[in-house]
């Protein structure tokens, strides 16, 4: 099994930790305040530590930190992330007046591209950023098949990430490889439809998916 470090202990990070641990992977959650997240260490196969240690000790690292501040945070972990796969599931947005996403931090580009440029020795893969966090680990609960998009320059890294998605219940035909890391600007822009859905329906599970 792959040892996985997850940076961020909010709803996204904690949910992915539980799902991947249930699939048999040893997971280390990296928290800015490990003491505040200590309860998550009670989950089987999940440990809690600081973010630098989680990045250094894992085979694969998932960025589940807020997208608006992720670039500076992860650039500071350049040495720890060198040679590894970094899975970015975040969206870099500026909040509207009601606190929901209102605009992109990187219009005409993407956080994933910024991360790849800042971390040239790391293989960045973008995925799972086009759905409510609950769908990430339970895609089969939706009424219609969802889509998990993949963006990244390294084919082997994308195959590794696709296998992890399979461990979370994603069928191969639900995973769409869009191509290089530059394609992440398309899926990151999809976040702009999300606040309108949330205002209308609340936090009901959804995914922005490809209908065939």
3D architecture notes:
- With 212 residues, this protein is of the alpha/beta class.
- Helix content is 33%, strand content 20%.
- It contains nine helices and ten strands.
- The strands form two sheets. Strands 3-2-1-4-5-8-9-10 form an eight-stranded mixed beta sheet, with helices on both faces. Strands 6-7 form a two-stranded antiparallel sheet.
- Helix 1 (11-22) links the parallel strand 1 and strand 2.
- Helix 3 (67-75) runs parallel beside helix 5 (111-118).
- The longest helix is centred in the C-terminal third of the chain and has 13 residues, at 155-167.
- The protein is globular.
Helix percent reads: 25-40%
| Global Rg | 16 Å
Low-pLDDT parts are: none
Name the beta content range. 15-25%
Let me know the average pLDDT. 95
Structural class by sheet pairing and helices: alpha/beta
Oligomerization state: single chain
Sheet with the most strands: spatial strand order: 3-2-1-4-5-8-9-10
How does the overall form come out from the CA principal axes?
globular
**Order of secondary-structure elements:** EHEEHEHHEEEHEHEHEHH
Number of strands: 10
Spatial separation of the terminal alpha carbons: 33 Å
Helical stretch tally? 9
Largest sheet: 8 strands, mixed
């Amino acid at each position: 099994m792959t040892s996985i470090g997850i940076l961020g202990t909010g709803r996204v990070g904690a949910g992915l930790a539980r799902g991947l641990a249930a699939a048999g992977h040893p997971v280390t959650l990296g928290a800015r305040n490990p003491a505040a997240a200590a309860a998550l260490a009670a989950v089987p196969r999940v440990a809690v530590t600081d973010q630098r240690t989680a990045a250094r000790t894992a085979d694969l690292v998932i960025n589940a930190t807020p997208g608006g501040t992720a670039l500076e945070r992860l650039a500071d972990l350049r040495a720890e992330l060198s040679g590894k796969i970094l899975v970015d599931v975040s969206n870099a947005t500026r909040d509207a007046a009601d606190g929901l996403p209102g605009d992109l931090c990187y219009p005409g580009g993407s956080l994933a591209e910024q991360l790849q440029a800042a971390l040239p020795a790391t293989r960045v893969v973008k995925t799972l950023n086009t759905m409510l966090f609950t769908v990430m680990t339970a895609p089969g609960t939706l009424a219609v098949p969802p889509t998990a998009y993949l963006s990244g320059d390294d084919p082997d890294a994308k195959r590794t990430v696709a296998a992890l998605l399979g461990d979370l219940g994603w069928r191969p035909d639900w995973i769409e490889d869009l191509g290089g890391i530059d394609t992440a600007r398309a899926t990151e822009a999809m976040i702009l439809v999300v606040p309108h859905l949330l205002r209308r329906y609340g936090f009901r599970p959804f995914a922005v998916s490809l209908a065939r």
